[in-house]
Amino acid sequence: MENLFIWGVTFIVAMLIFLPYVVKHRKTTNKDRLRDEEAKRLGADKTIAQHPQIDALSCIGCGSCVAACPEGEVLGIVSGKAVIINGLKCVGHGLCAEACPVEGITIGLGDTSKRNDIPQMDEHNQTNIPGLFIAGELGGLALIKNAISQGNKVVEYISENIKSLNDPLVKDILIVGAGPAGMSAALTAKEKNLSFEMIDQQGSGGTILQYPRKKLVMTKPVKIPMYGTLSKPEYPKEELLAIWDEISTKFEINPKVGVKLKDLKKDKDYFEVYTDKGVHWSQNVVLAMGRRGTPRKLGVPGEDQPKVMYKLIDAESYQKNHILVVGGGDSAIEAAMGLARQKGNKVTLSYRKDSFFRIKTRNETRIAEMIAKKSLNVIFNSVVKNIGKEDVVLVYNDEESKLKNDFVFIFAGGEPPFDLLKKIGINFGSSQN
Prior knowledge:
The protein is built from nine helices and 25 strands. It has helices at 2-42, 64-68, 95-99, 144-161, 180-191, 237-250, 330-340, 361-372, 418-424, and strands at residues 51-54, 75-78, 81-84, 105-108, 132-134, 170-176, 196-200, 215-217, 222-224, 228-230, 234-236, 256-257, 261-267, 270-275, 278-287, 294-295, 308-309, 322-326, 346-350, 377-379, 382-387, 391-396, 399-404, 407-410, 414-415.
């Protein structure tokens, strides 16, 4: 009888300890399953850079990888296994792999042989065209530290192999892109006394100018050539942009802004590089452009502010904000609805036409419901006139209206760089021509 009592007490204590855990675990896994289904519907599960490769046979579903991710919401536990849920948000920090107790995660690009967005490169980041290099996320590896490292590595290799042409018109290096990879390449060129030019469509910061997150996470210190070390674990986008501007001024990088690469051709010992503003000549070319493509801009005053973005990855980062979304396609509508669901947001969707055209049926149904509930404001026949620091001005019905504003998301289409690279002659995946 005494033993039975002891067993009973032990059982009750065990239930008190483990039952809350079981309930919490079940709620979490159910939530992850719903998130996974939603991400697949929206296409957010697809990765664009290096990401976790999860061995399902090794995975024990402990959730250590989920907790370790500094971006949050990338991974989840579905059917007892870790899965990538928000692949768009993953930038490959690698902390999930370090946290896995069974070593069931590796970080990489996966099988790139059939991908048409990963250029072929050798160990020096040189493409199949001698003298033409790629640095930064264009090659598929995200993270600022990777971009800086690759920009430095590429120019180090160039400096060891370059031959003087004794032609003042031909630079040693032409750098396309003024982001972290391009700046690192330029600073290394300065160190090596190489002549160079830098061109960029937007300005210092490159892809960071488009980046949709309020804060960029850097899990380890990052050393910038000639400048020093970025040691904080997180940097607001605005602070990073200020750093690039400081570097550009201090070291006289002087990027030529508003210049778009159109084509390039190898002519014996150097490249002829064609832009919308003229021709450049250089022995080597470093493509340090982003892989997200060039967003189509509205061309209105104030659009160059850091609060203006062209892609939404993480709606949950934006709460208690006044937000304007511009566009009438599925991407704009899905972004507006996602932001409107977050706590305290007041979201307005501006569209230049009088109704939505050719959008998915489910988006049409859902946004109609949100409009009816007044959880989302849609203004048809409207255009943006001006973007201020704390407001935006819309024009509709021939009248101007000023709205309080913290962030603007513009979905007006864009031009990914991959067709241009293929036109130049760069091989992708398993292609050999």
